[in-house]
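Hey all, quick one. A colleague (J.T.) asked me to put the pyridoxal-5'-phosphate job into the tracker so the inputs and the structure tokens live in one place instead of scattered across chat threads. No bug as far as I know, just bookkeeping. Sequence used:
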Amino acid sequence: MTAPTPRPGILDIKPYVPGSSDAPGVETVYKLSSNESALGASPAAIEAYEAASSHLELYPDGGCVELRKKIAGTYGLNADRIVCGAGSDEILQLLTRAYAGEGDNIVQSDHGFLVYALAAKSCGAEVRFAPEKNLTCDIDAMLAAVDDKTKLVFIANPNNPTGTYVPESEIRRLREELRDDVLLVIDAAYAEYMETPDYVDGAALVEENENVVMTRTFSKIYGLAAVRLGWGYCPAPVADVLNRIRGPFNVTAAAQAAGAAALDDQHFVQRNRDFNRKEREIIVQRLGGVGVECAPSFGNFVLFRAPDGDADGLQAYLRSKGVIVREVGAYKLPEWLRVSVGSPEGNRLFLELMESRFGNG
Ligand SMILES: *Cc1c(COP(=O)(O)O)cnc(C)c1O
């Protein structure tokens, strides 16, 4: 055999399947399958993105200096410990590549975000899944899944696709009971939506420990998924490691400009948070009204169970009417679907379809 062969494990990876966006034969399609911002992005961010087009010949600032300063100012953090990436996905991939390889493993929960498992496999590492309780990450099970080959533990808080979260006390207990040489990665992609007092994004834990990283994204409440922008908040030695292995110009100039402008428009963030809370409450209440079970949701989406367990059939029905929701069979939730909080029109159509299918009226 002379053909090039990838490293062991690579061909076992099932490629990530993004939320689909087409519904053949339907005129108006509402894509509620990728947790994208229903209100778009801040006009200031759009303007900054457009302005960046006048100097496409220039390399971006490889250190994202202005953007990191602005992130630090907005969230009260130390700019030196921030590493920016092409989406938080890139930060998650870099962390895995830096700290895990063949013979190692990572730990994540059963219904946790699947990018962690994909990143681990691409590095030749194994994945140990911890069972959840009530669709919520179970810290005892996470700790029990850790063995002497474990290099990283990943937790999305709140998690996608379940929407549930773990309170500060449990996150702290997870860190305290983990070995010091295991890196705890707290993925806080939905932190800006959180309004409960027992929630923390993890930044304080990063500052108190040498072995915690928090990741954040501009893809959700900031509405900048298209530009690919995220960041990690790291202990100084971890930031140093990421800066050694990342691409020298891994974040585009347009992404840096749009992100900085988006941070300056916290009014937009507040508006998006308020809109999301109101619409999410309506979705949960009306689904409950026709007996559809929902997981307690804290993000910009709701996980709900197909009443007859036929998630495929329900997804196909909704799609045929122009509403695209996300199948979550890959997350070991074959009877469930995830709907993003969309525009008022999209949410209404979704709810009307669900009520006409499952209501007695
Ligand atoms: C959407 C999402 C992200 C963000 O990914 P980006 O690469 O920043 O777009 C990260 N983690 C979770 C759990 C998510 O749902």
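Adding what we noticed when we looked at it: Residues 266-289 form the longest helix (24 residues). The chain has a mean pLDDT of 96.
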